[in-house]
């Protein structure tokens, strides 16, 4: 059992750890949780690569990470997860520039946006939060296989309780769009993807984890209205129990750092973490735990098949 909890920070989780020699690839690394994760890991010696879709923001974040960590081993790469061609270009460049990836952290995301579609016609939240990461991760598996004790960490959310994945209509072509249900579907997909990765990659020594970072106000909520903000803040506080309610960004990045580095998680892939521990399966609680549908292996296989169809590529390991 971990000594860490809801109020632990990324620096506290990484205290005493040496990440020298580790190459860490982080999507959404130009702000918020991704940037803080990168700073905390760079401070422990990791070579950090942050990916995002805006080079100016990447450059600014990279400098902030260097300043905050005391490390110059910070690089950037462009990747728009809402465009499969951009994802493929990013993967190609990554494979050319680096000889391995030790820690792949799929942190980028979009939340509660009005209905929109990606460059390839997918519903924006499912397309960005899941499909973009599905393709990028699979295209980078050859590098991840070359990593030392490699791990894939997928940021999901407590929002997964809002909806299972509708494997027959993930893009809302035949049902009414509801932004929170769509967000929930995409976050459930992050967990089911983790289960699918675990079933395929554990035998290659690659561990895969999903996690809920906690309720945090970052630019993930850039599409939220004032009413949305008030509702979410109230919901987080009501469900916090004895916890902190809304977390700070350093507290939010803690579970990512824990999933990426904790020795006690070795051999425990395919699980969902919250507050720096493996969550229990719970189909009732509004406060914590993970819904059983998110960890269902059969649903994970359906999602994998649907995802391969959407990206037009199959991946066998």
UniProtKB/TrEMBL annotation:
Please give the start and end residues of each transmembrane region: none
Task: Supply one GO molecular-function term.
Answer: oxidoreductase activity
Annotated SUPFAM superfamilies: NAD(P)-binding Rossmann-fold domains
Keyword Oxidoreductase (UniProt): yes
Report the domain of life of the source organism.
Answer: Bacteria
Oxidoreductase among the record's keywords? yes
Q: Which InterPro entries match?
A: NAD(P)-bd_dom_sf, SDR_fam
Sorted alphabetically, the keyword list is: Oxidoreductase
Provide the family line.
Answer: Belongs to the short-chain dehydrogenases/reductases (SDR) family.
Q: What protein name does the entry list?
A: Probable oxidoreductase
Natural source organism: Pontixanthobacter rizhaonensis
């Amino acid at each position: 059992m971990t000594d860490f909890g809801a109020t632990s920070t990324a620096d506290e989780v990484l205290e005493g750890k040496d990440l020298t020699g580790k190459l860490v690839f982080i999507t959404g690394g130009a702000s918020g949780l991704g940037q803080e994760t990168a700073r905390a890991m760079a401070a422990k010696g990791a070579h950090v690569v942050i990916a995002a879709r805006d080079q100016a923001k990447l450059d600014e974040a990279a400098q902030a990470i260097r300043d905050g960590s005391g490390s110059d081993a910070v690089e950037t790469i462009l990747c728009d997860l809402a465009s499969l061609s951009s994802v493929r270009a990013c993967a190609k460049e990554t494979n050319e520039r680096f000889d391995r990836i030790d820690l792949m952290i799929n942190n980028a995301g979009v939340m509660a946006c009005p209905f929109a579609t990606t460059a390839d016609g997918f519903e924006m939240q499912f397309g960005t939060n899941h499909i973009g990461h599905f393709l990028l991760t699979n295209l980078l598996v050859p590098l991840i296989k070359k990593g030392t004790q490699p791990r894939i960490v997928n940021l999901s959310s407590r929002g997964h309780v809002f909806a299972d994945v509708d494997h027959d209509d993930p893009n809302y072509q035949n049902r009414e769009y509801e932004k929170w249900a769509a967000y929930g579907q995409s976050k459930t997909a992050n967990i089911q993807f983790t289960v699918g990765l675990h079933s395929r990659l554990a035998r290659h020594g690659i561990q895969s984890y999903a996690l809920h970072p906690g309720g945090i106000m970052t630019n993930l909520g850039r599409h939220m209205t004032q009413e949305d903000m008030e509702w979410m803040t109230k919901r987080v506080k009501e469900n916090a129990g004895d916890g902190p309610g809304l977390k700070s960004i350093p507290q939010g990045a803690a579970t990512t750092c824990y999933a990426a580095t904790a020795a006690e998680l070795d051999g425990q892939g395919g699980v969902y973490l919250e507050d720096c521990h493996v969550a229990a399966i719970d189909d009732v609680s509004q406060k914590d735990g993970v819904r059983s549908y998110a960890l269902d292996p059969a649903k994970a296989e359906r999602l994998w098949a649907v995802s391969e169809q959407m990206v037009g590529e199959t991946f066998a390991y």
